[in-house]
Amino acid sequence: MVLGVGVVGGAGAIGRFLLDGFVGARARSKFPYGTLVVNLSGAFVLGVLVGAAVGQGAYRIAGTGLIGAFTTFSTWALESHRLGEDGELSLGFANFAVSLLAGIAAAWAGQHVGAWL
């Protein structure tokens, strides 16, 4: 189990790095769209896993390993804070609020999709 979480966790971290870089390079904005896309897609996939009622072992490997390494709470918090420090209070608040609300909605939608599967 530990080895499985570690292996797919590495894949999740690489996926986050690539997707964040891809989105960020195209957005060319102070707003951290890359982190937003990563976290919303991760919340959706985690919701799918819960809704599909995957087994405990599969959930630990995919949910904790893959999606846990793919998403990033700490980067979201730091980017929100840095925007505020840089005088971009409205962007910092928007990043915080949009990520939180849309993340909950993505998890909810994913759970319903997973239950449908």
What distinguishing features does this structure have?
single chain, 117 residues, mainly alpha, 5 helices, globular
The averaged pLDDT comes out at: 97
> How many β strands by DSSP?
0
**What does the largest sheet look like?**
none
- Give the fraction of residues assigned to helices: over 70%
Oligomeric nature of the chains: single chain
Q: How far from one another are the termini? A: 25 Å
User: Uncertain regions: pLDDT < 50 for 5+ in a row?
Assistant: none
Shape: globular
Estimated share of beta-strand residues: under 5%
Structural class: mainly alpha
With helices defined by DSSP (H or I, 4 residues minimum), what is the helix count?
5
Write down the domain tally: 1
Q: What's the order of the H and E elements?
A: HHHHH
Radius of gyration: 15 Å
Task: Describe the SSE topology.
Elements: H1 2-27, H2 33-51, H3 56-70, H4 73-85, H5 89-116
Helix pairs in contact: 1-2, 1-3, 2-3, 2-5, 4-5
